[in-house]
Please model this.
Amino acid sequence: MGLHKTADTTVNRLRKPREEHSQLVREWVRQIRDLSYDMEDLSDEYVHLLERVAFAFTTRIPSRRRLAKRMQHINRSLQEMYRRASQLGIRGLPFSASSSSGMDATLARRFELDADVVGFEEDVEVITKQLCDLGRQVLTTIMKQLMGLEFDQVQDMDEQEMKKEIKVHLQGTKLAKSLQRINRNLQETSKHASELGIQGIPSSSLSPIKDTNLSLRYDVAEDVVGFDHDIQVITYQLCDLHVTRRAVISIVGMGGSGKTTLANKVYNSQAVKDHFQCRAWIVVSQSYTARELLTNIMKETMNIGNGQTREMDEREMKNKIREHLKGTRYLVVMDDIWKVSDWETIKTAFPEEFTASRVLLTTRKMDVAETADPDRPPHHLKLLESEESWNLFCKKAFSNACCPPHLQHLQDKIIQKCGGLPLAIVVLAGLLRRKHEAYEWSQTLERISHAPNKTDDQTHKILALSYNDLPHHLKSCFLYFSAFPEDYDVDAERLMCLWIAEGFVGSDLEGQTMEDLAEMYLIELINRCMIQVGRRNEIGSVGSVRVHDLLLDLARYEARKLNFCRSISDKGDSTDLRRLSITDDEGVHQYTSLGFSIPKLRSLLFLLKYDVDMPSKSMIHGSKFLRVLDLQRVYIESPSEIGDLILLRYLNLSFSEVKELPSSIGNLCHLQTFIALGYNLRIPSSFWKIQTL
Model:
């Protein structure tokens, strides 16, 4: 992930007086990013070749020559990269390629910088570091696949030893010579330390979570500060038996003001639970269809599964809901309604009787609230007062909710930066919590004042700064949320398996598995207030997580810039697309109608709230390098192509109605995660020969 992400972070941090220099750096970083992708493609294609064909060397001379030519092209590109860096006046690199250790190394954050590179020092370092790491990964892959060595036989070798072994094995071939040239150029990254402008940075071992307390510090329900009066007012309006008609109560406020938090607190209060015979919580969001909403209402109120609603039209669904709710005192929460038409489309499903039933809306739009119930004025959610803001901040920033004396003089500045907006407060608290000195806090607050952003909105600046403050392994994990639809309850176990398959999670530390590390990453994002706990499982662990709409907007904005992940509905060239997300029925139809392949696709994610049908022949589109394939809730009968995806690491067929796996599933020698929930599945004997599961 790092090179593409780092590229645009670099550009975003440059100051306007250096705009011309910024343009040159942007182009240079783009070239590095493209080069890293070329190297990744080369490595994958070579592994694919070795896996697909027997190890008879002479039968693959044309393919080997083609790969050798691509290596030579990469060598030339590396040399051009060094030359351009020198022309840009970028100098200094803190490490050697031989000391890099791939996924199990992270970079220190102390820099001595020339004036021209202030603001993108870490990014330049990470870019070059990852090129060195990728060079080692290419060598490791070739030794494992070509020479049949195990990981523990390779991990202690330095790059010189690895190249020597490969040279002996290939003895004089053009491929060997190309490998020597590419690794010499990668080693040159270290030699050009004076050309990148960064000095005196030691490498450090992986320690992604510096906070020794890895437990979650709070849940969403605890975020309620300053809402006591609002809770009383809304609860009274919901439970007032003097108003017997079906009334609509609207909570109106700007994004991040706590509308959903307030509604959730009231919805789950004991008084409301005892008062209503039937309750349902429905998330609307900006992108929805009436059918999706009606299906969700039926599931919540009638306990009906997707399969029972597939043959119903919208009119029949409304009639079923209305009939079920008739004569019942019900409460339906419609969270995050954006348009008047959203309410108009759905309102006839709720019977208008004199049972004191209620519909509770949350919205940013005043016209929605006024239209939904003209006889009842909307409840305006005000921003927090100074004292309330500080109380919420302290609750999030300090484990004991008490600010130490040496930081108290910054109270007014923090309150002013956040403007009483709860989301800004908790995210800023998550950002500052990991910093302990007053000068660090002052520097961070100053960066908010000058942080570049497409708007002058302080909240967006705080969110962007909190994202930029993430270590690079957590940036990848956070950007992954851009693949999911709005208000999606992301299963924590599924998410962590995806992170591992994508390579975001480092190699095992002593006494810790990658699953342990993935959970640490998840907890760290929660403690930084970048994501929220959605629900907990029976033993109290995180069962699901959610991301606020404003933070989701940020993740999508960054992901689009970096070509990190795209939705099927996003416009743009798909030639170099690495990850594709499909989140609704319309997206599935768009994907099945594609008349072209996506040859460089590594991840295909169907992240659906409802079941959809898809013909199996449209599943892959010639994407032979897929590592992640998530087909949860996709009705597909015969996934015959899956056996051709020999680089696949993650396969999810849950609730897909697949009855039998093809025997070619045994070809998936890199498969790490296989999930198949919901149906009986016949598994061939070849499946049990996959050693990586």
About this structure: Residues 1 and 476 are 6 Å apart (CA to CA). The domain at 227-380 is CATH 3.40.50.300 (Rossmann fold). The chain has four domains: 2-205, 227-380, 386-546, 565-689. The mean pLDDT is 76.
